[in-house]
């Protein structure tokens, strides 16, 4: 998968772009959790040959490397847990109902954009090798701007250009590599501030509007729909020796997202920001939009942004169980899971919350709290939404018998 982040200056017509790697800024952030030793399967992906790229554009130097993988991109379903009813049916796209594509024609779309465009900025990060360009969203009158961490990776200086074309110097506030988010700050009175919506209220089929600076073209707008919710996708880490990361609980849209859109706004039909554009799926040959883009839900993004502004640690719920994303007939017979759907545990880390709760290799997780689990991606998303330190009943099938365990998620170690 690719991320639509930083972009270098506009390229000559016909020039091709390679996939972009995620960027991270100095000062160094805490290391993300990862198991040393042999390579293990990553939770929450299935076989689908696609490249995932970070959507930032690069200028004045070599582009980042496209991370192509055949380990899969999408989960087995569009929803996780109890959210399944949200994504099962699209909204009434042909009726002109508010918030649907049919309602966003002509003057109404212009009215919606009137509140969004002034709050979306272009972000330029100067590095030792050139300049990278992405987008950002002003989320506080005090000058705080939310963008992707990979947009400003390796930045020596960062600049922000307002929608009025006014350039400003930006100060780095903080970043979180796990969520791929960063906060900047500019000093300017009277900034337009984005209206923030609730990504939890999104439904498949809702209108989706992408605003950002694709290929450096500031204040560009594309429209589409919310194609799916609760995706778990792999994105390239862009850092030597670091495993690829997962974008968890992502919003999928067919609104065009391209290099330079990273960190920009995904809004709903009411002009509220509901996501931060982050990545695109490609066939591995080009980083241009193919109608499959991903955004970080704004509910999670604002929690991270608030923690970064307050200089507090960003916590990630951790279970300590690896999930098998490719269950074979032999696995089904060996672990006696029958025809049940769920998330198959392939390994349990010692002294982890999963181990302390009694979870074992071969257990099939079919429910996490009040959310049914039909695939590994759904468990990954349900865990991300859990509260650290709060016990959760987990229903598993173990050799044909159904058991209920109580797991207490901990903060992800090693971050």
Notes on the structure:
The chain is mainly beta and 415 residues long. The chain folds into two domains: 1-314, Beta Barrel (Thrombin, subunit H), CATH 2.40.10.120; 317-411, PDZ domain (Pdz3 Domain, Roll). The chain contains six helices and 24 strands. The chain has a six-stranded antiparallel beta barrel. Strands 5-6-7-10-9-8 form a six-stranded antiparallel β-barrel. A hairpin with a 2-residue loop joins strand 5 and strand 6. It starts with a strand and ends with a strand. 53% of the residues are buried. The model is unreliable at 5-50 and 59-98 (pLDDT under 50).
CA-CA gap between termini: 23 Å
Biggest sheet statistics: 6 strands, antiparallel, barrel
- Shape designation: elongated
Specify the CATH architecture of the largest domain.
Beta Barrel
Question: What is the beta-strand fraction?
Answer: 25-35%
Query: What's the tally of helices?
Result: 6
Helix content: 10-25%
* Radius of gyration based on Cα positions: 21 Å
Helix/strand structural class: mainly beta
| Strand adjacency order, main sheet | 11-12-13-16-15-14
How many extended strands?
Answer: 24
Order of helices and strands: EEEEHHEEEEEEEEEEEEHEEHEHEEHEEE
Number of domains: 2
CATH first level of the largest domain: Mainly Beta
Low-confidence stretches: 5-50, 59-98
CATH topology type of the largest domain: Thrombin, subunit H
Average pLDDT across residues?
Answer: 79
